[in-house]
Write a structure and sequence with these properties.
The protein is of the alpha/beta class and 334 residues long. It has helices at 7-14, 18-26, 33-46, 75-88, 104-116, 131-138, 163-176, 193-208, 225-238, 250-262, 296-310; strands spanning 64-69, 94-99, 121-125, 144-149, 157-161, 182-187, 215-219, 244-247, 272-274, 291-292, 321-323, 328-329. It contains eleven helices and twelve strands. A six-stranded parallel β-sheet has the order 2-1-3-4-5-11, with helices on both faces.
Amino acid sequence: MARRPTLKDISELANVSEMTASRVLRGKGEASAVTRERVLAAAKSVGYVPNRIAGSLSSKSVDLVGVVVPSISSFVFAEVLTGLSNVLKTTTMQPVFGVSDYDLETEETVIREMLSWQPKGLVVAGLEHTDAARKMMRNAGIPVVEIMDVDGDPVDLNVGVSHRRAGYETGKAILERGYKKLGFIGTKYPLDHRAAKRFQGFQQALAEANVMLADQELYTGGSTLLLGRQLTEKLLERTPDLDMIYYSSDTMSCGGLMHCVMNNISVPDQLGLAGFNGLDLRHGMPMLTATMNAYRFEIGKRAAQLILEHEQADYRAVRQVIEFKPDVEPGDTL
């Protein structure tokens, strides 16, 4: 469906009146269970989003930009939101944030609610979504910017880095420095798709060099310095002859560095460490940990700029991809 689905479309698909379809979708009035299921299934199949401001504003839109991220407690997404806000504050537009907690069903619900208010644009972290969420974004009639990742099939506008390339280039840099007994500490999959892609790229670099990953430790939940310390200790207790550990985030690698400092493990002579994201946190550590800058602030700025560039009444998706290409920063630990 090339245009935004209407209530009439839903009523025809479900073979009910528009009034009945409206009651079901608004949760008002009575309808049989069969009718309700038929209407909801029809709405989901075409990515229908209710217009909560229809009839109340002549413009049929508000000066809001919906932003959906997995977390607002992470350093990573805080910098993205700062970059986006810095651009929007020069306009009449205001960002409104929603959190998916790395759950695609939750993300679908947040996207539906965001779009129901007819914002001027939508920014969503990542390229993995439910089918219903993709349909809603495709039919939204506003600029939709998927950010952080370019390894996939974008709905419309896309700004980010290749996480597979990031993992691959880090793996190559590690191998070029002579490390052979490698460990990995990262998030359990498939919750964090971008971390999973980095690990895939890392493994590809190792496979091309006929090097096997010696050991790994996976975790759920957020990355913290304490967790980085604890998992580094656990990994080294199990495989004490590791000469390199690659972490899925800088927060974890900094925790790993603290474990090494506290236990007189010489870095990088006895053990090399590398993370990802280029967090400022690294500059407060006893040594500057190796990383790869993910251009978070720049991605947030560019996403906002794209929305401003493409804002128009009859907007159609343009399928534009903007990729930032970061390099490995060896610091003092690689």
